[in-house]
């Protein structure tokens, strides 16, 4: 058992998925791994995410200390998001997941093509 922030997890994978799991958090981290971005720039780079969901996910990642949110005191207001050291530590893991996805899709596609040819 792992106790973190008052929540008990049965294993480290549960904790990890609670922090970075879901459809959008890894994608946001991946894009911020390339460069510091403003909200609308990030939203344009992830066209299928709603403004509300992006806001929620950014807040959760900031609360988990995986991203920095810097507010510039100017008009119009300017807010930039970047990865913290914790967030940057995830990039090799996400790279491996991307490579796995590419390999998996190639293997499944190849196996589907083989099945069609044998029928």
Task: Give a concise summary.
This protein is about 60% helix and about 15% strand. It is of the alpha+beta class and about 120 residues long. The strands form two sheets. Strands 3-5-4 form a three-stranded antiparallel beta sheet. Strands 1-2 form a two-stranded antiparallel ribbon.
How would you describe what is shown here?
The protein is an alpha+beta fold. The chain has one domain (2-118): Winged helix-like DNA-binding domain superfamily/Winged helix DNA-binding domain (Arc Repressor Mutant, subunit A, Orthogonal Bundle). Helix content is 59%, strand content 17%. The protein has 6 helices and 5 strands, in the order ββααβααββαα. It has helices spanning 12-20, 25-32, 39-45, 51-63, 85-89, 91-118; strands spanning 2-4, 7-9, 37-38, 67-72, 78-83. A 3-stranded antiparallel beta sheet has the order 3-5-4. The protein starts with a strand and ends with a helix. The relative contact order is 0.12.
